[in-house]
Amino acid sequence: MISSYKERILNLGLKAKRVLVTGSTRGIGKAIAAGFVGEGAKVAVHGRRQEAAEVSAREVVQEVGGKAEQVIAVSGDLSAKGGVGRVFRGCLEGLGGIDVLVNNAGTFEVSGWKQADGDRWLQAYGVNVVSMVRLIRRVVEPMREQGSGRIIQIASISAAVAPPVFPDYAAAKAATVNLTVSLMQELAGTGITVNTISPGPVETATWKDFALQIAELQGWEKDLETVKKKLLSGLMSNASGRLGRPQDVADACLFLASSRSSYINGVNLPVTGGLAARAV
Length: 280
Description:
By secondary structure, the protein is of the alpha/beta class. Helix content is 46%, strand content 13%.
């Protein structure tokens, strides 16, 4: 739950904006959806299953003190054409359109080069890249017609550091960063901005599972706090001295969706606490 959310409201001029956040039934996506609701936007919470999306939509409203009419639930498998169409139609019916698309949905498995065969690479690319492209193609023309829009991809720091434990996922996220720059140039002068956010390690349920898998591979004690300390003193060491929180990514996303970011276009914004920072 987001504590003291009213104290966190940024007043970014997002009231009544129509927002689709894919993969928003938990973790980072759910925090992003909650942030938009707190700012007064109308939000489509998306999940693969309708029941899960509906539960999360209600929880988001309760957590931020929003209104039930601000949030709808949409569902569909975005790795399939039919699922993308279903989600898009749900947004048209429930929101009347999409002003902001946050492409957050994605998945990864911990598997090295020996385990990640060609089929797994294809699956990773389909879920993490092609699904985004299909949704982008749906929303771009309506955004062109209204002369404004925000498209935000959620990638990962792994796109830059490319760890060997999930090479297929890292490559897919690198493709996400690349497509953002290409799309930005395609949409030049339309009033639509396209940006990427690349989070570092963010403490979610998925991250905890990942951390325990690392502990097993390293032969460490499987106590989460102990594992966290080891990672923060080594592999995940950063200048901020902590792991990311879902709200850190949500706040960056809210800013990029706002009118205050209209001159920020085609960037890849690292939300990493300084992990793998570079001067250029």
